[in-house]
UniProtKB/TrEMBL annotation:
<comment type="similarity">
    <text>Belongs to the isochorismate synthase family.</text>
</comment>
<dbReference type="Pfam" id="PF00425">
    <property type="entry name" value="Chorismate_bind"/>
</dbReference>
<keyword id="KW-0413">Isomerase</keyword>
<dbReference type="GO" id="GO:0008909">
    <property type="term" value="F:isochorismate synthase activity"/>
</dbReference>
<dbReference type="InterPro" id="IPR015890">
    <property type="entry name" value="Chorismate_C"/>
</dbReference>
<dbReference type="InterPro" id="IPR004561">
    <property type="entry name" value="IsoChor_synthase"/>
</dbReference>
<dbReference type="InterPro" id="IPR005801">
    <property type="entry name" value="ADC_synthase"/>
</dbReference>
<protein>
    <recommendedName>
        <fullName>isochorismate synthase</fullName>
        <ecNumber>5.4.4.2</ecNumber>
    </recommendedName>
</protein>
<feature type="domain" description="Chorismate-utilising enzyme C-terminal">
    <location>
        <begin position="130"/>
        <end position="384"/>
    </location>
</feature>
Length: 398
């Protein structure tokens, strides 16, 4: 977006390292705030203050909105986890070394927030896990192994409840979050509630009528030893079980997008997407939209892909609602931003955590198909908790 009177951004200058410090602290100061950084670290948004709010992504966006939809229609006890979108008072965009804002007053606002906090330490006091998860996954596998089963795939989730010594601050979480590379960094804060995600997975990026999405499904660990790491990656690429898990996602996205694009790019084989603890099968998908669809229409159309829900969708979602111990809230739901010119990026809120006062909840899920093994899926979810556990760990050290 260019700088001019009728454009959203009215202020622009070079960004300084001091700006980040102050902007991070402003995430704590404002009762409602958000942060979004893409996985290539080429675009950052900060959003502060509440002008308007919605529970789900609105159809018509007049300026710019930030927020997240809940994974499904289940009601959560925690308010934020039922979905929250807001139009901020102040938006700051950082890209290509330039800082832009919707307010010409930005420098005086930054000057008013100069006070520096020291990093506040938190300690993990207690972790409570779901003890019967393996048993429930075993039951699910038996169900899927039955040739008469109406379900082919379910992404089954679990949660860990954590008690912390102190309340987390968004600025501290962000500092630790940005140490994790090749993933999106997302924070959504309302009052005492904070949702954080270090997700590798894009649901949708839309700009000028072009759409980009991805299938991310099929997982194996990383290894410190480069030789072993390559072996793990290669066997993932050749694993029939993982290929099936992945293909469900590619087929579903392809079918949905074929109906609404004039041109669609779907590579025939997945490649590897490597994060710190895990590597995934990854198929980037892009196309040109035929109809003038809003970002909201596209999100509603694509979410949840079989990477987070399952196949067939309706039956898998029912299974999730009945057999997961607690509603997912924002876990695995779409989270991101949308602008008035129908540009937007939404990622799925996995590798994520919800914090409220001294309580935190961590989320992880794994795609279960016929032939899956419960212990292996448990180990996979344990790895998927690690980004957020490490983030909490960072906050306990100097
Ligand atoms: C559900 C999660 O991850 C999803 C499930 C994957 C799988 O089953 O292999 C891989 C990536 C994600 O699409 C999670 O990280 O919690």
């Amino acid at each position: 977006m260019k700088k001019s009177d009728n454009q959203f951004f009215k202020f622009e200058r070079e960004v300084t390292s001091q700006d980040y410090q102050v902007l991070n602290q402003m995430l704590d100061y404002f009762r409602v705030s958000a942060f979004f950084e893409n996985n290539t670290a080429t675009q950052i948004f900060y959003a502060f203050g509440l002008k308007n709010s919605w529970q789900t992504l609105p159809q018509k966006v007049n300026t710019m909105v930030f927020g997240a939809n809940a994974f499904d229609g289940q009601h959560s006890k925690e308010e934020l986890m039922n979905g929250f979108w807001f139009e901020p008072e102040i938006v700051v965009s950082i890209a290509n070394g330039r800082l832009q804002s919707n307010t010409v007053e930005l420098d005086s606002i930054l000057a008013n927030h100069q006070q520096t906090h020291d990093i506040k330490r938190v300690q993990i006091k207690k972790i409570i896990s779901e003890t019967d998860w393996i048993q429930r996954v075993d039951d699910l596998i038996k169900n899927l192994n039955d040739v008469k089963s109406p379900i082919d795939k379910v992404v089954f989730g679990r949660q860990e409840m954590i008690e912390l010594s102190n309340q987390n601050r968004a600025s501290c979480l962000l500092q630790a979050l940005r140490m994790q590379h090749n993933v999106y960094h997302v924070i959504l804060k309302r009052e005492n509630e904070i949702f954080v995600s270090a997700t590798p997975e894009r649901l949708v990026f839309v700009s000028q009528g072009e759409i980009q999405t991805a299938a991310v499904a099929g997982t194996t660990p990383r290894d410190r030893d480069p030789h072993r790491d390559r072996e793990l990656g290669n066997s993932l690429l050749h694993s029939l079980k993982n290929q099936r898990e992945h293909q469900f996602v590619v087929d579903s996205i392809k079918m949905k997008l074929e109906a609404i694009t004039t041109q669609l790019n779907v590579p025939s084989n997945p490649i590897l997407l490597q994060n710190k603890q895990v590597q995934h099968l990854y198929t980037p998908i892009s196309g040109t939209l035929s109809a003038n669809m809003s970002v909201k229409d596209l999100v509603d159309n694509l979410h949840p892909t079989p990477a987070l829900g399952g196949v067939p969708q309706k039956e898998a979602l029912q299974y999730i609602a009945q057999h997961e111990q607690q509603p997912r809230g924002l876990f695995a739901g779409p989270i991101g931003y949308v602008t008035a010119d129908n540009t937007g990026e939404l990622v799925v809120g996995i590798r994520s955590m919800y914090c409220e006062q001294t309580r935190a909840r961590l989320f992880a899920g794994a795609g279960i198909v016929a032939g899956s093994e419960a212990q292996q899926e448990y180990d996979e979810t344990a790895l998927k908790f690690k980004p957020m556990l490490q983030l909490l760990g960072e906050l306990t050290h100097d």
